[in-house]
Amino acid sequence: MESPNQTTAQEFIFSAFPYSWGYSVICFVPLLFIYIFIVVGNLVIITVVQLNIHLHTPMYFFISVLSFLEIWYTTATIPKMLSCLLGEKSISLNGCLLQMYVFHSTGISEVCLLTAMAFDRYLAICSPLHYLTIMTPKLCVQLTLSCCVCGFFTPLPEIAWISALPFCGSNHLEHIFCDFLPVLRLACTDTHAIVMIQVVDVVHAVEIMTAVTLIFISYVGIVAVILRIRSAEGRRKAFSTCVSHLTVFLLFFGSVALMYLRFSATYSLFWDTAIALDFAVLSPFFNPIIYSLRNKEIKEAIKKHMGQAKVFFGKTRVLT
């Protein structure tokens, strides 16, 4: 614990960012483009789903909620990364705790939501006759609220524990954003900090493995039903409804597993940064592409609204 002679650091300095102005600008431009694309892409998906009645189904409801969470998930880290690339590479202790909380709460909410989406696909394929009577709008809202409650309450104990730790040594954080393990490594070395690292490892492992197990069970049932479909066209249509969800699941959970299921294994700063960029930036970047470009109904809805916008602006020009 903290002794009277120890002074707790009030800010951390990110040491994983390049200090060369040239390299910083090179990193800043694509990262800014990616962030704008993520926000705009997800806002387009949310808007299209809301404006089209035929998309008011459980699957698209969950997709729009996922898009909403993705915006906040990336906003928790990317704007600060952009700021660090061109300005001060520091963050206050309270700012660091807030960033960890928002990042993990939205991330855990996404994990829970992807699990709920697997359950939705399981019912749609394995029990199509009872699907709409089971997946009612009320149940969809209840599942979404449960995912958010789980996400926003699960990180609280970890954040509270970390906020009580003394940080009296180096304040150089070897990461591109505040995360549990990099921050815990800066705590004054004592038994409490070591136990905390082990507890965080176990908590993350339980969270990830529970979600993976539930999703795996859902897809075992889905595959079993698809294999019993006689026509190749029927099998293709049934599986096509799961491709987007399965792709997002593999992208997100693959990188998250590399980061949080390592236990005693350690990576170099380069690989730590690369893996963090994968699940914090690249995975959210690909999600709007997967859910729009690979989804026929959303593509058609976007084209319809783009056509309506052209007609509207065309009439506006004529009137003026």
From TrEMBL:
UniProt xrefs under InterPro entries: GPCR_Rhodpsn, GPCR_Rhodpsn_7TM, Olfact_rcpt, Olfactory_GPCR1
Residue ranges of the TM segments: 20-48, 60-78, 98-119, 139-156, 208-227, 239-261, 273-293
Main location (coarse class): membrane
Keywords recorded for this protein, A-Z: Cell membrane, Disulfide bond, G-protein coupled receptor, Glycoprotein, Membrane, Olfaction, Receptor, Sensory transduction, Transducer, Transmembrane, Transmembrane helix
Annotated localization: Cell membrane
One GO cellular component term noted in the UniProt record for this chain: plasma membrane
Presence of the UniProt keyword Protein biosynthesis in the record: no
Membrane topology summary: Multi-pass membrane protein
Single GO molecular function: G protein-coupled receptor activity
Summary of the function given for this chain in its UniProt record: Putative odorant or sperm cell receptor.
Family to which this protein belongs: Belongs to the G-protein coupled receptor 1 family.
The protein's name in its UniProt record: Olfactory receptor
